[in-house]
Amino acid sequence: MKNKQTITNTLFSKLLVKEVIPSVEEIIKRANKKKVVKLIYGETYDRFGLTIDSLKYYFYLSLLHKELEELGFKVISNVIIGDLHSVKNQNVVNKDELLDKASDRLKFLKEIKAKYSLRFEPVLMSQLFKQNDFPERREATKRVFEKTPECKEIAQKTVLKNRLTQEEKAGYQYTIEEVTLIMGYDIKIGPPREVFFDQLARMIASRLGKAELCGIYLKPTYPLGLGFDYFIQHPEIEEYGLTPYKAGSNQLQSNRVILDKGMRNTITEFMVKSFIPKSLKLPNPLLDLLLITDLAKSCLTNSLTLSDYQVLVNDTEELKNKLLKQLELYIYQPLNL
Amino acid sequence: MNQQLIDQSKTEYREKVKLGKEVHDYYERKLKELNIQGFSRITAYLDSFLSEPERLISRKIIFAHLGFEPFASLIAEKKEFAVVSGLNPSSPLHLGHKLMFDILLFLQNLGATVYIPITNDESYLDGKVKSLAESRRIAYEVIIPSIIAFGFDPKKTKIFVLSDYPDIYNFAIDLSKQVTNKYVGTVFGDEALDNSGKAFYRSAVQLAQILLPQLPEFGGIKNTLIPVGIDQHPYILLARDVAKRTGFIQPSEIIFQFQNSLLNPLEKMSGSKPKTAIYLTDTETDIREKINKAYTGSVSVLDVHRELGGVPEACSVFSLLNFHHPDDNFVKEIYEEYKSGKITMSELKKITADFIVSMVKEHQVKVKQVKNTRDYTLKKPLKSFLK
């Protein structure tokens, strides 16, 4: 067994993780006080299908789970499929059809779990909402939310500007449910924009006398097949990226990779069209794909290793070759795509 | 060594460090004062996009912008855009002008059609020449051949001397009702209202130059980029305001650092002050003499220089290399060696003078080879706003 203080640095590499709140050390310190450490990654979905970017989160969650277990902690990890929240937005059409897709998604997720021996349990949000104590917990969250003006200020940041009025009218029901759900966990893995949800969860947890959530925010997901100008024109995407698990995020479904038989051609096309920066500091969606294949390889081989990204950004052809090779070995073949 | 001299030299060093910081901080301070965005975020992308390093970007010579974002798309998609930047023909071109033309050439290579108004009317109104005829003569005999020698593409370059392109004044008349004298006074100060010509020039003629590429005669409404020094920022604000009110696309700006005066790194090289400038018509002897007399970032006692090093930021000689030498690695190496005291002032002066002499001589050879200026000059009549 490893020393409990020495978590693998690679898991928190700056190429993989954008931010850890409060800190890696604090995560370990808090885990030491727990009998069971509970990890969560939650995602909604849309009609376009499962993105390759979701894999990054499944793999990361599983690798972190494994690492914590090797450090001697008892760990429970859940991937929440937000079926109810996927249809909450009033702009969503064919809600019933989309709700039905939850079971397909759950099935596919179980297949992915089996192929890569991933260490988490997938759960539907609708199942969690049926837990006996959920309504009571939700009411407690709501009471604090309504009493605390700062909560509303943070909640506004969790919503896109064009949906603000709609959320206000709904009394931030989506946000309150989301926060209630994640407050039951110790460590949440998510994309950078979720930092606001988690900030709210921490604020409410502290007022309810509960343990505050730790957050690990992976590097943003960027659209593929676009020039450098897109990122200059969209500083918010540069900062936070797209919603990784929703292909239709920002209506850029044509610039995302969906896990299906057509993905080989799509990726080849994106390789030609995508802007490939020479700096690791800039958005690099191709490098992000390579990172996903590195994580896939790590799960399959039971050993966490990342490619030398610094070398690869200076050698575009090598980056593309390596990416194609790793996609074949660690994504297409295991998933029969 | 006399201790008093050493102490004086160390004091001199501290003063130069202070001056260097002032030079270094000048643009940051200006950005904050004027609330303009820095260019570094865009620089990061352009660095990756460009096939070869570009010193104007890597050395932060272009350091700020207002509304550059749409040009990123036009550049990426290889679509046309317009760039306007002109000059006063009151003296031959100097290295400060060359810097601006390097920027125009860089933008032309990225897809821009470049409009170069030669504002001999402004030279006359500002009292920089004795007559309109004199500034016109300088424009045709000295300036236009020199501009062409930089290597502009005739198909994408439109040079015009204001007094020989009177249609622009019609356009200026058309725009002039948009700007009151009070507005001109607020933007440019009372001296802009010294005489009626100046007021008309600042309020309308300048605007007409900036908005010219958007006239139907040149393909109609389009994104226009104006490279400017920070002191010209108010011109752009005025132009943006009028453009918005008259149905044109608001022009954008990129702001570049000025070429330091040879005598004071806090001031800019000026064509009307010959000792501050190296002209592209200067002889080798002139250039070497001017560089030898330039303000430097070194102290007077060699041993103290060796011990403490030079201050490149406060050095008008180093700035010549920094602004014009094409090789980033070479400039970086000289910077480090000068800063550490490894290179002496006289060595830096020799390296710089050799480079500038060779660059200017090469330019002079190219100027002599310029035979055809007609392909570059703009003659197209402007009628659209008269219909």
Structure notes:
The complex is a heterodimer of chains A (337) and B (387). Chain A has 337 residues and is α/β, with parallel strands linked by helices. Chain A is 51% helix and 10% strand. Chain A folds into two domains: 9-218, Rossmann fold (3-Layer(aba) Sandwich), CATH 3.40.50; 228-332. In chain A, helix 10 (195-207) links the parallel strand 5 (187-190) and strand 6. In chain A, helix 7 packs antiparallel against helix 10 (195-207). The longest helix of chain A has 22 residues, at 95-116. Chain A is globular and about 55 Å long. Chain A starts with 16 loop residues before the first strand and ends in a 5-residue tail after the last helix. With 387 residues, chain B is α/β, with parallel strands linked by helices. Chain B is 52% helix and 9% strand. Chain B has 16 helices and seven strands. Chain B has helices spanning 3-34, 40-49, 55-58, 69-76, 95-109, 120-125, 132-149, 167-176, 181-188, 196-211, 233-246, 284-292, 302-308, 316-324, 328-339, 345-369; strands spanning 37-38, 62-66, 81-84, 112-118, 157-161, 224-228, 252-256. A seven-stranded mixed β-sheet of chain B has the order 1-2-7-6-3-4-5, with helices on both faces. The mean pLDDT of chain B is 94. At the A-B interface, helix 11 of A face helix 2 and helix 4 of B.
